[in-house]
Every structure is written in C-alpha cells, then in structure tokens.
Amino acid sequence: MLCLLKFTPLFLVVAVCHGWLFGDLFEKQKELDEISLWPLPQKYQSSAVAFKLSAASFQIVHAKQSTAGPSCSLLENAFRRYFEYMFGELKRQEKSRKKAFDSDLSELQVWITSADPECDGYPSLRTDESYSLSVDETSAVLKAANVWGALRGLETFSQLVYEDDYGVRNINKTDISDFPRFAHRGILLDSSRHFLPLKVILANLEAMAMNKFNVFHWHIVDDPSFPFMSRTFPELSQKGAYHPFTHVYTPSDVKMVIEFARMRGIRVVAEFDTPGHTQSWGNGIKDLLTPCYSGSSPSGSFGPVNPILNSSYEFMAQLFKEISTVFPDAYIHLGGDEVDFSCWKSNPDIQKFMNQQGFGTDYSKLESFYIQRLLDIVAATKKGYMVWQEVFDNGVKLKDDTVVEVWKGNDMKEELQNVTGAGFTTILSAPWYLDYISYGQDWQRYYKVEPLDFTGQFLQSNSF
Ligand SMILES: *[C@@H]1O[C@H](CO)[C@@H](O)[C@H](O)[C@H]1NC(C)=O
Ligand SMILES: *[C@@H]1O[C@H](CO)[C@@H](O)[C@H](O)[C@H]1NC(C)=O
Ligand SMILES: *[C@@H]1O[C@H](CO)[C@@H](O)[C@H](O)[C@H]1NC(C)=O
Predict the structure, then answer these.
(1) What is the 356 CA–ligand 2 centroid distance (Å)?
(2) Which CATH number fits domain 43-89+100-178: 3.30.379.10, 3.40.50.450, 3.40.470.10, 1.10.3130.10?
(3) Catalytic residue among 259, 314, 338, 450, which?
(4) What does the buried/exposed string (b/e) look like for 174-201 if buried means 16 or more CB atoms within 10 Å of the residue's CB?
C-alpha cells in the first residue's frame, strides 16, 4: 500500500497509512519503484546512485564535532532503535553467513550543533525540529540543532533505506533539508470511554514517531471512567475506574508513557476535562457534582461540577497541583466543552446563586464563572492551559498564552478567524475525528484539509 506523497506538510493523519506503518516496510517497498518518504520533506533531492549497506559494518555514530556524545542516552537509544528498524532480522542472518560484504556507506554521523543538545530535556511548543541529511559516498551526515531534530532525521534516514533484488539494504545518494510546517502535530487518545492498555498507548506513540507527530493529547478521564491514579485523591480511580487495579494508570505507568514519548520527541499533554464530562469523578468525591432535581426534590442523578461550592475549587486546587507535577509539559488541557445546563437549571441552590450573581438565566455565565476560577487555580501552578473552543466562545477571560482548540465542524473557518483574530494560538481538530466510521478510501478527505484555509492576516496563521 502506498500513502500519497505529493504534499509537503507534516500535519498529517496517522490513520491513513496504518498498513504501511505496521506492515513489513520492506515487503511493501518492493512494490514501489520510487523511495517513499512520509511525510515528504521540505527539500528533497535524490539521485540514482545507490549505496549498499551491510548490517555487519554499518553504524550510526556521533559526529566528531557533535555537542552530544555517548552520554546522551536519548540518542544512544534512538541509534539502537533505528538500527533495529533498518536491519532487524537481517543482522542475525548476516552474522551467520561466512562472509559479510563491505558497506559502500560505513556510517551515519549524527551531528548536534547547538551548545545544549537537550538530551535530558522535554520537547516543547517552541522546539526546533529542523534537520538536514546528506547521504553521499562513504558517509552520511545528519545535522540538527538538538536531539529533537536528530530524531526526525533518523526517521527519515530509516525510510530512505530499501531492499534490492538480492535482499541487500540500499540507500541512494540524497540531500534533504526539512522542518515541520506546524509546531503542534497531535493525536488525541481517549482512555476513559475505552481503557487503553499501556502497550496500546506505547504502540501509538511509536506510530506517531514514524509519522513525525509530536504531541500526545491524553484525554485520560471523562464521564465513563477515571483511570488516572491520583496520589492526593486515590478514591477517584478506586471508585471511578472500570476496575481499581486492572484498569488504572499508576504513577509509574504515567511516568513510563511520558518517558517513552520523550524518547521519541513527543510531548504528553494531559486533559482533565471539567466542569462537564465528570460523571466518573463523582463516584469518589462526595459533593463534587451538582445534584439534579426533579421538581422540588433531588432526583438522585448528578450533573457537572458544582460551581457554587468553595469545596469544589479547593478540590481542584489540590488535584491540579498534583497534575502539574506529574506531567512535565508546560501545558495542561482543561477541557471545558459540552457543558449540559439542564441539571444546573433544575437545582434551586444554583438558581439562587444565579440571582445573587446577577446572571439571570444565562447559564453560560455560570460556566464562565467556574472556568475563570479554574484558570486562576491552574495559572498558580505556573502551567499554561489549553481549552476547547466553548471556553473562548463564552467570553471567558483567557491568559495570552492560552491555546484554544477548535473542534466543531460548523463554522470552523469563522471560529479560526475569531480565535486567531483575538490573538490566541489555536489547534484545529475539527476535520479529523477518526472515530466517525466511513467506508472506502476516506483518508483522502482527511488528507486534503488545508488548516490555514481561513480569512486572516499573515500573522494570524503564522505565529508558530
Ligand atoms: C535509487 O537508485 C536506484 C538504482 O540506481 C534507482 O533505480 C532508483 O530510481 C533510485 N531512487 C530514487 C528515489 O532516486
Ligand atoms: C467561599 O469563599 C468566599 C471567598 O473566598 C467566601 O467569601 C465565602 O464566605 C465562602 N463561602 C463559604 C460557604 O464558605
Ligand atoms: C465570530 O465573531 C463574530 C463577531 O463577534 C460573531 O458574530 C460570530 O458569531 C463568531 N463566529 C463564531 C463561529 O463563533
């Protein structure tokens, strides 16, 4: 299967080429008469001069001039990983053969140029992921400012390798210089509606790296279940997970996901969505959710987080203090989407509060009241926040560095115009809801979306 390669943006959808990702790369490669790179680099020049690579003698090494060396475990790990991708079982076969042939190309030198290679750091929204790669006689050189660009270049190098008719790995003379078009290239996984075992999450991160995606948006909790194990409030997962032991993410699980992602240049942005989408939170925390009324008495069911109790905010302050230390990324996603007002409307205490505050019957004002206080709580942890578009639509006062995520398909272009026009950074997810099942070759539809196709000034679409 071939994924279409004509477009340059790195902002692509992972689902379109699952077969290519998980299938045997070299089997598929045989069917192609040209080397396929995914996504296609910004500048790419190849020639028909082919070099042979022998698993027995080829090496990935630190360039002499590089500011990173063998103590950079992130790169050492990546060198091993990519060598395995490229040679895998062949290495063992060749070893068992009596005479290994000589490589035309003996090494790939990885040259990190900036004073701080960022070996122990985390990628961020401002990370420079650019790299250049030159494959020529005797050696290949991959040059990048830091480890993050090097990871992207190693991926590209591995995709250039193909198998010839004799089962030998080859790579052509090539010159590439590349950088992503968008700073945020994310995949959202929802581990609340369906609990995702750790190995599924790790496999997704692996697939993301192969497609140069760099943000794992972990929609970790929601109405159906609360699998995140909190040290401050263990009852949240004890009572809110599908199962308190088998269907939870322990602190060490979460650490593992974050480190596995870091090794691949992927940020982990956790989403703790409130005040809606919180049914599972109510199982463990008494009085957190609003009691709904049927007529003049409580109906026994619960709605969004109760925005009129101080205890709700005290709880959020403690929870987000923990979350801000567990997840190293500079951003936390606070949700804020799809708040259902019917329960708030039914509750007499809420009605009284609405009157006191002068909100009339405009429940979006109550929602904003809640979100505003939550934002202040999270800002105090020194984290930035991402929110779904409703928070912006309702006129909540947002910090300048807030990222607004546009997810509704209706009026998408106008929303992008409004959000960026107000000076906010935006993430667009509306066109790529892969859970909408359709048949046939629907990937083309996802592929053809142009995120910047909305009215705005140059700066509105190019601030990152
Ligand atoms: C790579 O080299 C081979 C052998 O000369 C040639 O057939 C092929 O077209 C080249 N591929 C690219 C993408 O340049
Ligand atoms: C809630 O907090 C506010 C401000 O901190 C305070 O004025 C108010 O008395 C508190 N309400 C209750 C019921 O404790
Ligand atoms: C964009 O802003 C205009 C002007 O405030 C408003 O009328 C319009 O409804 C907004 N569009 C969307 C999709 O929210």
Answers:
(1) 14
(2) 3.30.379.10
(3) 338
(4) bebbbebeebbbbbbebbbeebbeeeeb
